[in-house]
Fold this protein.
Amino acid sequence: MMLTMIPNGIVSVKVASRMVSKPLLTSKWTSSLRRIGLKPQTRTLHQWKSQQPVNTVNNNNSLRRFNWNPTLTRPLMTATNHSCAKCNRDPEKLKAIMSREILPRNVTPLHYDLQVEPNFETFKFDGVNTIELKVNDESIDDISVNSIDIDFHSASLGGVDATSIKTDKESQVTVLSFPKGTVKNQLKENESVKVTVKFTGILNDTMAGFYRAKYQDKATGKTKYMATTQMEPTDARRAFPCFDEPNLKATFTITLVSTPELTHLSNMDVNKEIVRGGKKFTTFNPTPKMSTYLVAFIVADLKYVENKDFRIPVRVYATPGEEHLGQYAADLTAKTLAFFEKSFGIKYPLPKMDNVAIHEFSAGAMENWGLVTYRVVDLLLDKENSTLDRVQRVAEVVQHELAHQWFGNLVTMDWWEGLWLNEGFATWMSWYSCNEFEPEWKVWEQYVTDTLQSALSLDALRSSHPIEVPVKRADEINQIFDAISYSKGASLLRMISVWLGEDVFIKGVSQYLQKFKYGNAKTEDLWDALAAASGKDVTGVMNIWTKKVGFPVISVKENGNEITFTQNRYFSTGDVKPEEDQTLYPVFLALKSKEGVNTSLELKDRSMTVKLDDADFFKVNGEQAGIYITSYSDERWKKLSQQAELLSVEDRTGLVADVKALSTSGYTSTTNFLELVSNWRGEKSFVVWEQILNSISSMKTTWIFEPKPVTDALNAFARDLVSKKSNELGWDFTKDDDFATQRLKVTLFGAACAAREPHVEKAAIEMFEKYSAGDKNAIPALIKPIVFNAIARVGGKDNYEKIFSMYKNPVSTDEKLSALRTLGRFKELELLERTLSYLFDGTVLNQDIYIPMQGMRAHKEGVQALWNWVQKNWDELAKRLPAGLSMLGSVVVIATSGFTSLDAKKQIKQFFDTKSTKGFDQSLAQSLDTITSKAQWVNKDRDVVISYLREHGYYKDQVII
Ligand code: BES
Ligand code: ZN
């Protein structure tokens, strides 16, 4: 899955094997809002921050309605002339639209003719860009385009040179001014005008725009570079001056220039290739109408593998020596394109599909139309040497990016606040196709433990934000690539698809694609299409879910056979205030009883009572398709814990997740959680086990700073839970095991190791010893990361050296990543410091910096060492991970959210009070909320938990001599 929980309930986008990229969100900040006359409902992303203004240094900037730069002739960006009927009826929406920082609409782009030539010595590139423009206001003499770090040499319009070219760095806009009347004169002879700019840009090393990705050549070991692009969301303007907004679609003809031996790739197929003066010029065919954030081009030494099963060529490119690892993805690409074409009834419109493995990459993958780019580990697969998670991750990433070819590329969100239409759909669709190809993976069951929990844990924070949140500027846009857009978005689609039925849902969705292809759409357009296909009031039900933040907890009160359901906003901190509890969500109760599931019950008001014929067994949120948590009485929890056989995998998974969440927030006692999972130790489904073990692991990391007898007792509890089953299942992996058995074995082996179950730990250590003595088959690939972890728990310099040498000379990229993460798991301070020193000395690539950090977050010594290091090295970190990239936000979350006390929270706040938090203020607010939630959980149930552990014989009272 894309979003994964870092233990403790922090959600973050999983990049690579990873949980990186963009943790998330927001704070509330009502007083500033009132100052500018906005009501809280119209909060922009920045204003959706947590209660505490984390840092007010740049918050003031974020409230500016538009940038006014006195050196330029007009306000750079403001949403002028917006007059659609829908928005005129909704003044809040109109206000949000008017505050967007966008280019003036006096011209609109029709076509770009772009030539780019990278220079691998100077790390710059030269460009010539001719943009054909439709003129909407003939009287203009200035043309505004987006650009950053671009050095303009000239600009001309129909042969007339610009009189001035001025760039405003803050707003990333360049104004090209022409002699009075130039535009008007041009229009006398032509329907459109053409502006040509010549420029030089920087082939940067920050993984944004047109950048250089460093790698070691397999054959010679020499350092080499690929020149490649990453434009989303707003970095096309680093590669070429453009109208960098998703609804300013145009066509593109791209020409690449380099020495002849390098491969040239772009969105389209080659139109012509010539070699002149020792240089190769490749011109690609014009693209269909598309947004700038989807433009891609690559100049590099590449080889490929191919699959010919689909209508058009499907290839996977990699640097020489690695291309054979692309076959799995090539085969999957061909199958997936065919499947989506058939499902939507719309052909993939481009003449080819290339996937490329990029050596340095900030996200996991990027859906550029016809030229999808990936982190190496998310595309190239050595199946025999990989974990199941890795195989599933590659499959998911490939299918996700291919789903975008329709959702995002063909039909694009009108503006970034509709990002969920891209990411929520791509996430849901990747499961839909995966379910078709790999039914054994039970992806819809895994959805409950994975995507749904990611969505709920972020949305349970005060600092969450609605799915559709107004965003204005680049640094805000980056921060909404989060669990709300991806996981809550996908969960909403799951809810709708169950409500309407999958067939009706897909029918509505394909009508929506058909209607808006090559254009842009808004959330309302999707609801209209689904309403038309189903005849149901989709808009009425769904608007609340996209426009309002949060989700409810449904409290169930029983009076004999009469059951009363009451909804309230849910916070994991358990401290919702009446003014935060105003939204009434439309909730499908999906009440499961012995007679089946009653799908007609909808809770629209605060409360509702129903009468059951037989209340011996019932469960709310049947199959766990709704976005909410259900709270039962202690007696009902007991009863449900004995009725496992009446519940589906999704139900059991949901109950475990719910009771754990309710324990955190104080709706129920943690003993109900401990009892339930204790009763389910005979569970057969790997999905339910994963939820049980994730929940326990989250509890352990919340209790991480508690005294040793308590943490030992929790470990003893976990050990007792998994010991029998893990020893029974064993750790031999034969080809005869089906997927579910393999998963279960891996999960239990990992949990038993984490709980230091002696047999299992011994087995892990023996495997490692044989492996490092040269027996390359000693550790089954599926459990290698677990074995490495076990070794870090044992600790010691010798073991560290062995893991380090595996990082330097791995048998697979999967091993490399596991080793790197393990380097953070050692607890000895000296070793932790050594790991930290590798983050800056070139041993660890910037793209991977969070991986050893994640290892550190798993133990208290690491949590403290990492935070000390981050404070000491803050300036350098901020320099290496520019705020715009959003990786800094991930680092901040990983480095701070491991703490569990209000005191630590205060210190973290103090540290950031003096820093600019631009680009990661949401992540920080989220992290602080998470600490609050953990602190409250431990404070509330510290004694209850000790009593439970003591009563059940897990807590050994210390003997005082
Ligand atoms: N469109 C995103 C890539 C992206 C993310 C660009 C953030 C700019 C900022 C892409 O489709 C994506 O979502 N990639 C995921 C993988 C996927 C399986 C969820 C990623 O990068 O992890
Ligand atoms: Zn995506």
